[in-house]
């Protein structure tokens, strides 16, 4: 999908394609943003929103996490409108006791400020999905569990690497 500031009619929004901004339709110059760039801007902006304690990823993010791949954009997707604006979908975990409507307003402000400020693109809409509510203790436990899992993954990888090598030497380590 190509997003442009020119007044040309664009096709329907398609996820997973680049966003191209051209100031003048007669110019050969272009500025293009990968959807992943916009998603990363949004994900980083969420770190500073009061009441948001984490992002909720898809099943693919959970599979990536299981293999030690960290995805900073988990819980965020974007699509480009025919008017070259961006629609943002965000799935978050909020802190127990946070007023959800205020969290939503703060999320919208943060997204618009960062996406518009960094790219010049208009934000056509923000859809916020609250996936879970966590107490500070629950959040602390989940962060510790993730950290333990990340630390255990390299040890498991090392053990798998040594086992085939030992087998090749006749089972002697």
From TrEMBL:
Residues 152-173 have a biased composition (Low complexity). Pfam families: Asp23. Residues 1-28, 140-173 are annotated as: Disordered. Belongs to the asp23 family. This is Asp23/Gls24 family envelope stress response protein. It comes from Tractidigestivibacter scatoligenes. The lineage of its organism: Bacteria, Bacillati, Actinomycetota, Coriobacteriia, Coriobacteriales.
